[in-house]
């Protein structure tokens, strides 16, 4: 039985608009919006009325880059689809796009089915998949077409991690050509992994084993070089390109130069690059291991270029690259050898709040917050306007956000299944109050009312941002 829900008295903020409006929800979708106090809004009746006075009414966040249960370096990410999507909901994110992994020597179908099995019936919010291509060959190129028709319309390749995920330029070019033909968007981890492995080997030989050396060997120039090379390969293939987790000023410059030529090249950054730095990697007593991720954290002076890129739209999306490993027993695998520290940070619960803090701090506007966290990721990955906005016909994925509440981020209070917070002790203004996913209350005034299995797989169309 469908419940009619009315959200009254809030400030509706989307990427396009800000208006004092009431929102009517029926059958899990937005039925209508009308100005608060208008005759139309006053005439509405509902089974449930939610008072949003003093709050923002925003679309649920779309986190287009997460890794739940990802196997890495002999262990696996500590969040399951159940715990990770519950934490996402607490943080105001109502859709994740996770990465299914093809193992070398196996088919894409095998990898995708494994991820369907991991997620099915477990998720608190809706989910979709990208496909990681680890083994580009005639068979897997043909399979790309089938996946696109199934709603898995983006494919990630790696210029890093030789021996695991790495693809050489020839394989990357073939995958890009296939994407250009079938509409699949190629996502690129742009770091020169071959050169990085040489620097890793040399650093370890010198006895440089601490976590801070992880950042030092993964040089800014090797991110910029790989970004440049990926862009040129995409030009040759006539394909659009989406570069993931951009961390450095020089890489942003490569994207900006390509976009100035009118090329369909896009970039994502993550909260860790906007709020953390190599200072964290250098924390004593191996604490820096908590901050090991790739691309790595950069010196603080890179942050302004990333904020500027977000304001000028040379960077379009902020995702988390949520890939948590506990400090005890997982990050500790790299004691005495930074190259063995599992790469990844927890963050799916913190993204919307950190970006609201960026609004408070004057880095971005309110509408830009919604654009980079909800609307553009939905458009980039074929989910719009079902996701990413509040409009008649859209899924009723809606967050009531209290812009005045103050909180301190801490592992003591977060809901991610990991024993530390990358932002421990950070004071921020703004907090999620209530979350609806397809019209169902998942968080009700700071109380979890969701359930595993509410979230469903969402097939995606091809990129709508071109």
Could you characterize what this model shows?
By secondary structure, the protein is α/β, with parallel strands linked by helices. The protein is 31% helix and 23% strand. The chain has 14 helices and 18 strands. It has helices spanning 39-43, 81-90, 108-119, 138-149, 169-182, 193-205, 212-217, 220-237, 249-260, 271-275, 278-281, 303-312, 351-360, 366-380, and strands at residues 5-13, 18-26, 29-35, 48-51, 56-59, 61-66, 71-72, 75-76, 93-101, 126-132, 154-158, 185-189, 241-243, 265-269, 317-318, 398-408, 427-437, 440-443. The strands form three sheets. Strands 1, 2, 3, 4, 5, 16, 17 and 18 form an eight-stranded mixed sheet that branches. It has an eight-stranded parallel sheet with strand order 6-9-10-11-12-13-14-15. A hairpin with a 4-residue loop joins β1 and β2. α5 packs across α8 (220-237) and α8 (220-237) packs parallel to α9.
Tell me briefly what this model is.
The chain has 466 residues and is an alpha/beta fold. Helices cover 31% and strands 23% of the residues.
Uncertain runs are none
Cα separation of the termini? 39 Å
Strand content: 15-25%
> What best-fitting shape do the alpha-carbon axes yield?
globular
Q: Radius of gyration over alpha carbons?
A: 21 Å
For the largest beta-sheet, the strand count, sense and barrel status come to: 8 strands, mixed
Task: Lay out the secondary structure.
Blueprint: E1 5-13, E2 18-26, E3 29-35, H1 39-43, E4 48-51, E5 56-59, E6 61-66, E7 71-72, E8 75-76, H2 81-90, E9 93-101, H3 108-119, E10 126-132, H4 138-149, E11 154-158, H5 169-182, E12 185-189, H6 193-205, H7 212-217, H8 220-237, E13 241-243, H9 249-260, E14 265-269, H10 271-275, H11 278-281, H12 303-312, E15 317-318, H13 351-360, H14 366-380, E16 398-408, E17 427-437, E18 440-443
Parallel strand pairs: 1-4, 1-5, 6-9, 9-10, 10-11, 11-12, 12-13, 13-14, 14-15
Antiparallel strand pairs: 1-2, 2-3, 5-16, 7-8, 16-17, 17-18
Helix pairs in contact: 4-5, 5-8, 8-9
